[in-house]
Amino acid sequence: MTDEVKTTAATTTPLADNAGAAPVQEPGAAASLVPFLIIFVVFYFLILRPQQRKMKEHQAMVAAVRRGDKVVTSGGILGKVTKVNTETGTVDVEIADGVEVEVVAATITNVVNAAKPINDNAKEKGKKK
């Protein structure tokens, strides 16, 4: 019987030590959402906001395309704009003499200034010599 009493006393002793301690409180719902809010704010300022700005700049560039501009498409095709169709959102681009293709205006990645030569350094070196 003494062995029974000892095991019972041994199991109740640790519970008796924690009886005076304060209960552990769970964090509130607002405290558990704070890390997610911080991650969202960082995500917004590092990824979403710059991407939105870049999209607006691209849309403005595409809207400013006019006949005679030299453009580069997303496929890497270089050509000269011959016609802009605002209703359909397409642009006719001449890629060679007498060869025209119709491309979606949104696929234009760059507008090369027609007045400025692509390779400025080569022409300047020739003038200086």
In short:
The protein is of the alpha+beta class and 129 residues long. The chain has three helices and five strands; from the N terminus they run ααβββββα. It has a domain at 32-114: SH3 type barrels, CATH 2.30.30.
Description:
This protein is α+β, with helices and mostly antiparallel strands. The chain has a domain at 32-114: SH3 type barrels (Roll), CATH 2.30.30. The protein has helices at 2-18, 29-63, 120-128, and strands at 70-73, 78-85, 90-96, 99-104, 108-112. A 5-stranded antiparallel beta sheet has the order 4-3-2-1-5. Strand 3 (90-96) and strand 4 (99-104) form a beta hairpin. The chain starts with a helix and ends with a helix.
- Output the strand order for the largest sheet: 4-3-2-1-5
| Helix percent band | 40-55%
The CATH class name of the domain at 32-114 reads: Mainly Beta
Structural class: alpha+beta
Annotation, overall tally of beta strands? 5
- Based on the coordinates given, report the CATH architecture of the domain at 32-114: Roll
Shape: rod-shaped
Q: Helical region count?
A: 3
The secondary-structure element order is: HHEEEEEH
End-to-end distance: 114 Å
CATH topology name of the domain at 32-114: SH3 type barrels
Radius of gyration: 35 Å
List the helices and strands and how they pair.
Layout: H1 2-18, H2 29-63, E1 70-73, E2 78-85, E3 90-96, E4 99-104, E5 108-112, H3 120-128
Antiparallel strand pairs: 1-2, 1-5, 2-3, 3-4
